[in-house]
Structures are given as C-alpha cells and as structure tokens.
Amino acid sequence: MDNSKKEYINNLQNLDFQIEKQDYSSVYLVDNLTEYIAKNESPYIIIALDKAKEFDVNAVYFRFFDDGRPPLAQIYLYDNILNKRTEEEYIKIHRAVWSGCEIPVYMIINKTEIEVFDSRKPVDIVNDKIKTHSIDTIDLTVQNEVLKKYHAQLFNNGAFWETDIANNHFLNNTGAAERLVKGLREVRHKFKQFIGEQSELSDRLLIMCILIKYLEENGTDPETKLNLAHSFFYENTGFNTLTEILYNNKLSELLKALSAHFNGGIFLMIDRKNPNKDIYAEIATLNQRDLAVFFDASSNENLFGWREYSFEHIPVELISNLYEEFLPKEKNKKGKDTDTPENGAIYTPSFLVNLLIDECLPLNFKDTNENVKLIDPACGSGIFLVTAYKRLVQRWRIGHRNNGELANPEPVVLKQILKDNIFGVDIHYNSVHLTVFSLQLALCSMLKPKQIWIQAGLFNNLEEDGNIIEKDFFDYLAEDYFARDFYLVIGNPPFKELPQQEFAVYKEKLAKFEKKENINLQIPFCQEALLFLSTSFLLLKKGIGKLCLIMKSGPFLYSGDEDNNQNANLVFRSNLFNQHNVTQIIDFTLLKNLFRANVETAAVFIENKPTENDSITHIVVRESRSIAEKSYFELNHYDFHEIPSSVAVSTPYAWKCNLLGGVQVYDLVLRLKKSKKLADYLDEQRINGWDYGQGYKVGNKSRKDIDNLIYGKNTIIDKSFKDDGIGQIEIQNETYYESIPGNSKNIFSPPHLMIKKTIGKNCIPMDLRDDYLTFRNEILGIHCMPEERRKLQDLAKQLKSHNNILRFFIAATSARSGIVRSMYSSDLGDLLSLPLFMEEPFSPSISELIIIEDVLNYYIEEFGKGKNAIIHKQTAEIDKHIKPFSKAYCDSLNKIYAKEGKKYYFSKLIEGNSYFACEYVFGIDENYVYEQSDKNLDNLLYAWNPNHSVRYSKVMRNYGDNVIRLIKPKKLIFWLQSIALRDFGDTLEDALNKK
Which stretches are transmembrane (predicted)? Predict the structure, then answer.
C-alpha cells in the first residue's frame, strides 16, 4: 500500500476494520479499482466502487455475509488527512450521498478523530444556509466507549444496526425516497386543486416535469462545464431552466421539442379517448406558474425541498417509489382513501427487488451474459424491469472490461439490451407509462450529457415495439400470440381475490392451455396472484426458464387441510411442486410491514422443469432494524430450513413450524398428531346425545331468529371471555343474523362447555356452564345430556391440564394464527384438531418441554412485535440464558459422549464487543470461567486454530482437542435453549462430516 495512504487507513484500523481481506468484511480502496478489476475481485465490489467514485469516496466498507449473498457496501470513507476538503465540498457530498440512497453512513477520517455522519438524513437549512452535522465524533487519542460503539465487529455481524445509535439514526423516513414521495403527495394534491378534475393530465404533467428536472440536473458536460439541457431548452423555448419555462407558460413548446428529439413516445401528449384533441394547446391554457412554484428551489411553496437533493444522483428506482401515489385507492367505511391500491397491487421496496435480482441474475465472472430475456407479468411501476435492466448492463460492462477498466456502453448497446431483453405487461395505462418512463430514465442515467442532448432519437418506442404492453395479462395469454422463450419471469402480481364471475371468465379464456400445456387453473379461492403463478409457466423456456414471483403466503403456503385430499390449497401446491422444480422460498410472513399494505408474503423460486430436488430451501426472514428501515435483509444460520419435497406437497404446517424454530417443532407436532383429535372424540359421543358447533354471526342481516333462540337471551360478550373464564353477559337484541347454527338450541343449552377461538395470553379460555347461554361464532360450544355432565367436565379438565401443549399445537399448525390474524387467534378447525390424551397419556421429554416453552414464551410474541420482541431486543444474560443454554447443549452431547466420569461441561465464557464465545470441554466438570475480551474476533479464532484459515460467519462452531466452542452474537435469539438443541444437531452433523 502506498505510504501516503497509510495514515487514514491506520486511523481506521483503530476500530479493527480489516483491509482488503479475502472473503471477509473489509475496506476496499477506490483508487485500487483498476487492480481489483485485473484480479477479478467480486463484481459486486467492483460495481459498488465504480459507483462510489461519483461521490468522491476514498474507500468503502463492505459487509460480507455467511449465507452466500454478495458483499454489500455499507460505509463510505473519506480521507481528510491527505485529501482535505472544504466545508462546502462536504455539504455537496452529503447532498449527493443522501440523494443517492446507496449507503446509510459515511465517515470523515481526520488526524486524531473520525466524524460519523447519517447519510439517510438530509442537509439542514438554517437561516437560508445549508449545513451538515456529524452524529458522533470518535476521538482516536483515547480508549473510550465511543470507540467501542463503532468497533468493526459490530458492523461485521450486523449488531451495530440494533444499537441505540442506530435506533435514532439511519431512518427510512428521513431518507430521500420517503421525502420525495411525501413531497410529491403534497404537490399532487395542491396541483389538482389548481388544475381541476383533469387528474390524468395533472399526473402526466407532474411525471413529465420530474423527468425534465432529472435531465436538467444531469445536463452538465464534465469537459466544458456547460449545461447542455439548458442549451436545448433555450433553443426551443427561449428560456434556460424548467422553472423559467413554467413561469412563462412554455411547457407545451418544450414537450414538443423533447418528443421530437428523444423519440420513443415518452414526451408525446395525446388523449387516448380522443386522439384528435390538442393536448398541447390545453396545456398552454393552464396557469403553469402554479406548477412552477413546486419546482422552484427559491419558492416558499417548494414542497419538494429541491435544495436538499442532488438530482443528478437520485437513483432511477426512486422514481418507481412514486408508483402508488398515482394509483386509485381503496375506500374505507367513511369513503376516504386508504393506503391500499384498489387493484390489489402494492409497491415493492427497492431493497427487496435487489435481493430477488441478486438471486435470479447474479453478478459473477463465470456468467456475464447480458442477453437474458425476461418479463414482469404485472409490471406496475417497472421497478423489477428497471433493476433487471441495470443488472444486465452491469454484466455487459464486466464482460467487456479491458485493461483494468469497466467498459462504458454506447447508446446503441443500451438500446439493444433494453429492446431484446426487457418486457412487461400491465392492465393500467399509468403503470405502463410509468414503466416506460422509468426504463428510459434508466437508459439516460447510464449516458453522458453529450450522448443525451447531441444524439437525436435516443429512445425506442417500447410500447410500439411490444416491450411494454398495456393489457390484462390473462387476455394477453388468451390471444396466444405471446413468446414462449423467456428465461425469467419475475415480479409481484396483485394479491386480490377475484369475484367468482370474473374468475370464471378468465378460466374459460385460458381453458385451452389446461390440457394442452398442463396448466393448472384450479385456483384456491380465486386468488389472482396464484393464477399469475400458474399461467406464467407458459412464457418460460422448457428446461432452463426460471420464475420468481412474490406471493401472498397465506393462501400459497399456509392454508390447507391434510385430512382432506381434495382441499384446494393442498391440491394446488401438490400439482405445482410435482410438476416443477421448486428450489427455494424466501418467506417474509413475519414482516407484516415490509410493504405499505399489511400483508403476509413470500418469494418463490421455480425452474421450468420436472422436480429434481429432494428438498426445498425455506428461508424465514425475521424482522430486524435493518429490514424495518428498508436497508438490507439480515439473515442467520437458524433462518435456513430444508423441507423434504414429499412433506412440502402434503403437510401445510411444515412451513409454519419453521417460523417457530424448525424441524424440532415439526417432529413434536408429528408426535402429537398421532393422538385422537377432539373432533373424533366429539363425533363418537354423538350417540350419547352430545353436540357441538360454533355460534351465530351478526353482520349481513339476511336471516331472522324466528325461533327466538338468540333474541332476548343472554349472550357472551366476546372481549370479556378471557383466560379465567366468561366475564360479562348481555341480552342480545339483534333480530337478524348472517348465520344461525342449525344446532343452536343444543349448543346454547346446558350443560355446555364453551371454548374461545384463541390460545389466550396464558391459556385457552374455556368455561363449563349450567345456564342457557348464547354466543357468537368466535366460540365453540360443546353440549351434552345432563347425565353426561361428569364426562364433559373430565374433557374440560383434560384440555386444561395440557394447556401449554395445546396452545403450542395451535401455534404450530394453524393457518390463521399469526398468518392472517393475530398470533393468539385460532379457528374452528384448529380447536377440533386438538390432540386428546384420554386413551394414551402424553409425556413430553425434557427436549420437547424446552421446545414448547420457547415457542410460547418467545416465538409467539415475535409475530406481533417483530423487531421489538424480547428475543430481538434483549441481550442474553449469563444466569438466565447462557447457563440454561449450555446445560441443554451439554446434556444433549452427554447422552452420546459421556463415559468413565467424563462429560462435556461449560468451562469458559468470553464476552467480546459483539459476541459471546462459549467453551465446552470434555473432562471432569469444573466451574466456568468468565473473561471479557477486546480482541478482534479474527485474532481469537487464530489463537484457537493457528494452522487453519477460518472464514468468519455470524454463528460459528470451533473444534479443538476435547473442546467445542460456540461463537455467536449476544442477542437472545441465538441463546434460547431450543437453539441449543439445534446446535447439538449441527455438531453431530459436523462430526459425521469430520469437520
């Protein structure tokens, strides 16, 4: 390394950051980019460093993941020792980095201190002056707590993003994307007030002006320093800037000129309902000053806050963020717009799109093929297509690298990649136009100003060329003119449940494909997304085509009845998984706020060929701060599960068990499933006069209580039926009902046992009563003859005595609990499937008790609280967690290895800045030793195994002579006793593989 660079690097190493360490979270130098390209360093690092040059960065810290994901740029580093910059230069840098949305934090490295900045916070404007402030200063001359707060190890394992510092900074709602959407929302509302009811025209003009603003800000030629956009504007309107043009009502002239220059139809203004209408003349009659004030940085009504932005660095994907703002919204009961689009489509956050694109179109030197024909069948804003297009261009640049330089494609290459490979369909005109707009913007972002403003006819007409099609996707298929040569289908189709009549029309149109091409049209509950999934295979190449679609996980994964072979959900899954090779499912069910709409989702990856794999990888994504703030996905070893293909097609609860811990939970459920079900027992008792069923339903008042079974009678107030039994009772005054059970008289009559459809906070609420009592459909009633009361009482006692087992069972098997409703809810089928132990007693083992307790005490809470659940918020405590964990781990080992008075025991606990390292020795039991360490974990690993290179991962098992070491982050979720059981299984597997 050049000695002149050493000083700022040395300062950085005070925080234990590694420099250019292979396959390890490290700092890479921008000046060494040519060397990295020549050495075939990770393409992700090369592309990120090339991007960092735009922000005048000196070095970049990359987080490496142990789950196979590519390295991720997380910190920009500025050398302010050799390469001093002025305050004005750093203000400009901050605006650019904030606008660029590339990383959440940057650091300025001085001689004796390091300043830390939140790059998700905009510049401050105080008294009309732009300022920027650091959030912390690290004094390198003293060893203090501030130094520890930014220790490299915290970034290496992701622990930094869970600290108090991160709780108050690096927030998504202060990022450029959210600010731009908020500004647009206000501008759109005000502009519509000025322009009247011409909503489509007002939206179109807003989009046009944003595009023009983007082109204007990116119009400066780096060689001549002249703004070529301004030159073009002046030549055609007599004014230099967009705001001047708007203030002088010259937007029509500019749009005509831009349409002629760029081609592609993107600036062409026509009325689709009346093509002969002169839209340009109509625009000319508008008072464009009303629009100008929103784009004028000096205006008090500048709601966008343009001075905060550096528009030349705003990513194209951010424009897609505007998508939902232009879609009609569902109405609430009061007739006001909600945040949910009425067509069921939802905006896909860019960090999720990036994850899926990395999975489907990875960057590596072995495959730099940019000719990958792909389609999004419900393209919406075009965010998948834009991101895929940029990825194909990155592949071209890497594949054509030369002499340590990435290649820069000419416009003809960019146009060809776009024309040959990027396709999309959407039913909405606004979506199609926004997709075309975003793709052309992406093309512009990869060109120099001269190429944009000197060369005419820059854009292809993507609509006329058939790349982006405005059509109902199922009509598009039904016409049977579509290509069947796509390599990839990717996207996020609408999640709505289609009306039966509408679904029947689609089914009839597509019927010819059902037998001819073996397409399954038996769609559970008319779910539109599942119809997209099933029919998208028509587009894919046989044998090599791949599909990646986001599904609503409730109907896709979690619904189904294993005891009913004709169950629609199971039949659909079985057909899908048997016909195609499902490789993995990334499950976002626990992330209810991943999208703006509260919905459970999963991404499915399928190859268009017969099943090959014996198992399907199921990745359970748990909420973390990095996910909540839309930064990146934090995963660990325990989030990965393998589901045998035979289980995947037949057992709906296998997926749910993984949300609660994995195969250990599944094995326990299997054991419980062998017991007699409550429903079977109740059916057997019918001969003795027993009856059961759920109560009445108030709502759509289509039925009258003719027999007065409910009206005027006592009824249970649901909210008052709690763990300790039935509370308040009231007189039911309703006369009309949506449903009244046919056996109402029986189940409302005493003696009867009422069981509420919930697992309760501590127990399943149930109460045995001897009075006539009605109840709603959220309660199961079990009635018996008076002489059978003792038997009914025994049943209640049986259920109560196994309360925790039954609560666990519902949590692990219910498709309602935690999926579409609260984790504490259940449905009738869940209660009737409860195992009974009257004939064969059930005695859980110690390991099974551990699993049950962890599910009930920890995992259930996670469904409601996410990142704020105890397992994510709390650091493991030695006495409360580490010792019980160690006991469970050693007890499991000693069932196999203990002999001649020797056994595995907990011998040492090392606490580092971001980890616990537990040491287990085989020998005579002694008290454990506690040790605090400021050592870099890498040094610790080397001390244990000096002759072996060890690749760091978040969860590590290290083996020596008669010693096992477990090294994991401090967060409680890594130190549950049930995790100890999984660690034991992993240790056995290591032994079999002789690691």
Answer: none
pTM, full prediction: 0.92
Last residue of a domain, one of 289, 314, 339: 314
Q: Are 918 and 803 members of one domain?
A: no
Co-location of 508 and 629 in the same domain: yes
- Among 141, 170, 199, which residue terminates a domain? 170
Residue 802 clears pLDDT 90, i.e. is over it: yes
What ranges in 767-824 are assigned the alpha helix state H? Answer: 789-801, 803-813
Q: Which residues contact 357 (CB under 8 A, 6 or more apart)?
A: 384, 387, 388, 391, 490
pLDDT band, very low/low/confident/very high, at 296 (cuts 50, 70, 90) = confident
Sign of CA dihedral 562, 563, 566, 568: negative
180 shares a domain with 42: no
Cβ neighbours of residue 687 closer than 8 Å, sequence gap 6 or more: none
* Domain co-membership, 162 together with 189: no
Closest listed residue to residue 371, CA positions, set 394, 392, 356, 399: 392
- pLDDT for 400 equals 94
Contact criterion met (CB below 8 Å) for 690 and 782: yes
Tokens (6 digits) for 655: 């997926």
- What is the SS3 assignment for 342? coil
Give the whole-angstrom CA distance, residue 898 versus residue 904: 7
User: Per the structure, how many domains does the chain have?
Assistant: 5
Are 512 and 597 found together in one domain?
Answer: yes
CA atoms within 13 A on the CB side of 376: 31
Q: 729 with 853, same domain?
A: yes
Q: Residue 285: inside a domain, yes or no?
A: yes
Which CATH number goes with the domain that contains 494?
A: 3.40.50.12420
User: DSSP for 908-967?
Assistant: EEEE-SSEEEEEEEEES----EEEE--S-HHHHHHHH-TTS-----SSEEEEETTEEEEE
- Short-list 95, 300, 306, 284, CA closest to 210: 306
Q: What is the Cα–Cα distance from 509 to 513, expressed in whole angstroms?
A: 9
* Residue whose tokens read 């349409």: 259
Answer whether 349's CB lies under 8 Å from 595's CB: yes
Q: Do residue 152 and residue 183 come from a single domain?
A: no
- Average pLDDT score over the chain: 88
- The C-alpha atoms of residue 774 and residue 757 are separated, in whole angstroms, by 15
Would you say residue 530 lies in a domain?
yes
Q: Give yes or no: residues 653 and 776 share one domain.
A: no
The answer to the question of residue 425 being in a domain is no
The answer to whether the CB of 692 falls within 8 A of the CB of 783 is: yes
Q: Using CA of residue 871, residue 877, residue 881, residue 885, what is the dihedral sign?
A: positive
Establish how many alpha carbons lie within 13 A of residue 167's alpha carbon, considering only the half-sphere containing its beta carbon.
6
Q: Token pair for residue 766?
A: 């149930």
Q: How confident is the model at residue 576 (pLDDT cuts 50, 70, 90)?
A: very high
Within a domain: 479: yes
Question: 549: part of which helix (H) or strand (E)?
Answer: strand 546-552
For 25, the 3-state DSSP assignment is: coil
Q: Measured between alpha carbons, how far is residue 366 from residues 204, 414, 486, 583 in Å?
A: 43, 22, 21, 21
Omega before 751 cis (within 30°)? yes
CA distance 52 to 79: 14
**For 841-856, what is the HEC assignment?**
CCCCCHHHHHHHHHHH
Which range marks the domain in which residue 829 is found? 676-864
665-707 confidence digits (pLDDT tens): 999 999 999 999 999 999 999 999 999 999 999 876 677 777 7
Q: How far apart are CA 314 and CA 843, in angstroms?
A: 61
- Give the largest Cα separation in the chain, rounded: 100
pLDDT digits (tens, 9 = 90+) for 804-836: 999 999 999 998 988 888 889 999 999 999 999
